[in-house]
Amino acid sequence: MTERLTYRAHVRALLVLGLPLVGSNLAQMILHVTDTVMLGWYGVEALASVVLGASTFFILFILGAGYSIAVAGMVASALGRGDETQVRRDTRMTMWHSILFGVVVLPILWWSGPILVLLGQDPALAALAQDYLRIAGFGMIPALLLNTLKSYLSALERTQIVLWATLSGAVVNVVLNWMLIFGNWGAPELGVRGAAIATLVTQVATMAILMVYAAQKPELARFHLFQRFWRPDWPAFAQVWRLGWPVGLTGLAEGGLFNASALMMGWVGTIQLAAHGIALEVAALAFMVHLGLSSAATVRAGRAEGERDLRKLRDGAVTAIALSMVFGLVVVAVFLTLPGPIVGLFLDETKPGTDAILAFGVVLLAVAALFQMFDAAQVMALGLLRGVQDTQGPLWISAVSYWIIGIPASYVMAFPMGLGGVGLWLGLTIGLAVAAVLLTWRFWARWGRGVPAGWAVKA
């Protein structure tokens, strides 16, 4: 029997693994925040169009990212079993899935304008969003490959390189945005197209850094990740598909909740849509911390599952949930006490409509404080379940919570009940609350009592 780790040891292990991932997630968010801030300075129409365009890109990205998210638990479990060959097989076939997905969705992004019009968006905003996506769409493959490499390196507990590569990319994005959106330093003034070019270049550069590291780092050479990359491995391809597509659809269910809210907010008005984009960026920044801890929990749960150490799995889960909840309470306090200064960071006071956007954004941040704890709980439960390669059950829970409960609640509260944009966000809160309760219950019902069949008793 292995010696039981103390909770202090679990906290330290989770933070050593998770804090670089938190930093990486925050740096990744800087890409989107930079676009939002600078386009907010550039103009309200530009900001609203990129809210639509980025939401469309993200909803497709999260569907394709299911494979790259699932591979973290698969690699961690294989390492726990001591099966290094399977590490290479799973990661390589995940990259295959990422490339194929990016090719399939590019036409959707290229002709996104008519699709957005059919969904009720203003034709002028839809045209600008299409301009953005016709450039940003070519970043889907590098973005998905980047996500795969992040999962692979995280499972190998090489999270420092993930952090530094993402930070470097964020700096590049800020510089290119300043040049290409506004036409500074002799560059052409490209507006939304400039933001798209900056994001695309950043994704390619960051992906290249992680590829070189994974291929050239001596300690990782034994995995031969890119050796004979073109050769198919159909059993591993099928395994990645089996675990990855439910994760992608789970992300689509949650992302669809927020994307539907953006579309419905567009029906409310352009000012409200711009404020929605800002408030959502702020909430997403806080969420990145929970997501980083959740990713670390996936790796540690996967290792415990591979080692068949039930005690380590349970104690690690308690630690991860507790840390996430503590941070959630801090965020609630910040959202409730400093909403005006936070929203104001995204706006230029000299632009028309700024006061209205600020006032509505402050109200939305108060609602965001409501769903903060629920959002933290659901993503942590998902991370733990993915670590033990439980992906199909969470899919159905998320589909019911977000599509059958959350989206209808948002619509009813916004329009028939007349609450407008605030009603939309209250509906988000209801959907997240249901998901948090059901996903947390699923993990503890399956792993919180007894010993799973086939496990050696280390509990």
From TrEMBL:
The keyword Phosphoprotein does not apply. The chain crosses the membrane at residues 12-31, 51-79, 99-120, 132-149, 161-182, 194-215, 273-296, 317-336, 356-374, 395-416, 422-441. GO terms for cellular component: plasma membrane. GO terms for molecular function: antiporter activity; xenobiotic transmembrane transporter activity. Its main location: membrane. Keywords: Antiport, Cell membrane, Ion transport, Membrane, Transmembrane, Transmembrane helix, Transport. One of its GO terms (biological process) is monoatomic ion transport. NCBIfam families: matE. This is Multidrug-efflux transporter. It comes from Albidovulum aquaemixtae. The gene is norM.
